[in-house]
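Sat 14:20. Reprocessing the chain from the morning session after the first attempt stalled halfway. Input below, unchanged.
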Amino acid sequence: MEGQALSTLLPMTGEGVLQFLYVFQPGERPELATNLTAWTEEDEQIGAEHFAYLAAGVADGKVVMAGRSQDGLGPAIVILEVDSEEEALRFMEADPFLTSGLFGASLHPFRTALQR
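Finished this time. Tokens:
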């Protein structure tokens, strides 16, 4: 599997559509994940831009779901349905949380097994 594109590991969900998820990782200030009082006004603005970015992704049909654990220990994730791994990577890398450096993220192939 080494060297194999992520998208080859994942069955398509529909004609030409792949699913990926990205998982946020702490940036230079890991306390942001667990301490809401650590957020500055600038951080709050970036958070609002991040929310708007994901909401636009929902409207465009790319973002299936986004959310975070409430205990600060579990993950914060975004699930995407896109045409290619490259499109998923571009979307993730343009997320304001990443472009600002507040958080990092890793991209993974994903497949919904069950859904309500």
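DSSP finds three helices and four strands in the chain.
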